[in-house]
Amino acid sequence: MGSAVSLPPLAPAMHLCLCHGCGQACDITRRPQRCSRCGARLHARKANSVERTWAFLLAALVFYVPANLLPVMHTSMFGSASDSTIVGGVLEFWESGAWDIALIIFIASIGVPAVKFLALITLLVSVQRGSLWARRQRTQLYRLIEVIGYWSMLDVLVVALVAALVQLRELGTIEPRPGILFFGLVVVFTMLSAMSFEPRLIWQAPPSKEKSGDARRH
User: Fold this and answer.
1) Contact at 8 Å (CB) between 34 and 40?
2) Cα–chain-centroid distance for residue 208?
3) Which of 42, 43, 90, 118 is the most exposed place for a label (fewest CB within 10 A)?
4) Which class in CATH covers the domain with range 45-217?
5) Does residue 54 register a pLDDT over 60?
6) Stated pTM of the model
């Protein structure tokens, strides 16, 4: 007969938690509940993670509508002037032969926010339902959201670069319009939403589901 495998104690059993400020393992029972190294307040989990994530995500969805409907830039070249939305700008760059810039703007301003919205909604709904489905894959999905978040402002930088090049060559003028402000708000609120989500909730399922899952495996 094989001997039973002895599993190491978990952090909650040892009353330990990681400081969200500096990453130090701290005693959650100490008073005051602050990190001894950086002084940050200690939390076993991010406080009100699901509620705050939903709030930031819904705010981003609200701003996403005017970000796509309102013009993001005003272009004046060779005596003609026009306002362009994000989609309109993508089409103009594509038709003018700058397909690489059009592709970058499309991915950064339409593709990336859509992926982040769908991914965060999937994570939130599955966590609220206490789902045991694909927990490892959902954790990887959260990491993907963190990675692509660094590129969220890429299209804003591209528009700024194009505006600088156009005015440097004295071909015309490009001015920002309200749509770019709303898109910036979309980026900020989606980043706050991703930062507010607690990925450890993916692995925190109700005890009844954990037991039923173990029973099916055996």
Assistant:
1) yes
2) 31
3) 118
4) mainly alpha
5) yes
6) 0.72
